[in-house]
Amino acid sequence: MSGSAGSRAGALGALFCALAVIAGAFGAHGLRGRLDAGHLALWETAARYLMYGGLGILAAAAGRWRHGAPAAGLMAAGGAIFSGTVFALALGGPRILGAVTPIGGVLLIAGFLTLAVGALRTR
Fold first, then answer.
1. Which of 4, 10, 51, 110 could make a disulfide contact with 61, Cβ separation 3.0–4.6 Å?
2. Which domain does 26 fall in, by range?
3. Is it the case that residue 50 has pLDDT exceeding 80?
4. Mean pLDDT for the chain?
5. Looking at the 3D structure of the chain, how many domains does it have?
6. CB neighbours of residue 50 within 10 Å
7. H-state helical runs in the chain
8. Three-state DSSP class for residue 65
9. Which residue(s) pair with 32 in the sheet?
């Protein structure tokens, strides 16, 4: 990925990482004692996967691989959907969100696989 698309993806990846750290800290300090262990574990999972998505977007932005932009887009959508629904579930959101969560996971996986294929095809 190059130019302004790479800069935007890099900024988005860094934003995801920052939000993941903020969410993790908020869970550890602001939600401990307010959520039961199961819901707190959901919160921590959401923060961790948001970080994974952010790091993947940063990798796509930093690399000179083919398919970097589509990979970053898939990871951004996947990270937002997966983590967003899991954060909501942790806070007592409607259980139907659990049916949407796997879509985010599949998008994250697709983004990483797209990045892998692009890296292998780049010479």
1. 10
2. 3-121
3. yes
4. 95
5. 1
6. 26
7. 3-25, 37-62, 68-90, 97-121
8. coil
9. 35
Place of tokens 């010479």: 123
92, exposed or middle or buried, with CB in 10 Å at 0-12, 13-18, 19+?
exposed
Q: Which tokens hold the place of 8? A: 């935007």
β-bridge partners, 35? 32
pTM value > 0.90 = yes
The encoded tokens of residue 82 equal: 């997966």
For residues 16 and 112, give the distance between their C-alpha atoms in angstroms, rounded to a whole number.
16
Amino acid at 66: R
Encoding tokens for residue 52? 């994974």
Q: Which two tokens stand for residue 67?
A: 């398919």
Coil, strand, or helix at residue 4? Answer: helix
